[in-house]
Amino acid sequence: MTVYNMNFTVTKEDTAKEIGSGSLPVLATPRVVAMAEHTCMLSLDEELENGETTVGAFIDIKHLRPTRIGARVKVSCELVQTDGKLFEFVYDVYEQDMLVASGAHKRVKVDSEKFMSQLQ
Questions:
Q1: Strands annotated E in the chain
Q2: What is the pLDDT of residue 2?
Q3: DSSP H stretches of helix in 6-118
Q4: Residue 109: helix, strand or coil by DSSP?
Q5: What is the pLDDT of residues 48-102, one digit of tens each?
Q6: Looking at residue 35, what is its pLDDT?
Q7: What's residue 120's pLDDT?
Q8: Is the separation of the CB atoms in 73 and 95 below 8 Å?
């Protein structure tokens, strides 16, 4: 399957201290999750018709090491299974050659308008 990569720079706003998930100025686990989801989401752009999008349905993460403000991290996701509507990924997050986090993520293809109509 295809591997899709994105690079991010850790900012103060990405830290556990800033978002409230911890007390230290290091890359927050919820931000790692957001980076992984964003990378997986964008990797599917060519799979979607006009009016379709994907939504997150499952996330699993092992956050293995701290990352400082200013560090560059690379999120690498691989689509490992799909049935056309459900997309299953594995992902790794690296700072240079050091593994920072890894996990799995599932996304579901939806019709944007129909999905949003469920809110009413």
A1: 3-9, 52-63, 72-82, 86-95, 98-111
A2: 82
A3: 16-19, 29-43, 112-117
A4: strand
A5: 999 999 999 999 999 999 999 999 999 999 999 999 899 999 999 999 999 999 9
A6: 98
A7: 75
A8: yes
**Residue of 79, 23, 94 lying closest to 47 (CA atoms):** 79
3-class DSSP state of 25: coil
Cα distance between residue 63 and residue 82, in whole Å: 25
- Taking the C-alpha atoms of residue 83 and residue 108, their distance in angstroms, rounded to an integer, is 10
What does DSSP assign to residue 49?
P
The 8-class DSSP code of residue 97 comes to: T
pLDDT at position 107 is: 98
The total number of residues written for the chain in this structure: 120
Give the strand pairing for 72-82 and 86-95. antiparallel
Tokens of 13: 């706003």
Measured CA to CA, the distance from residue 120 to residue 116 in angstroms comes to: 8
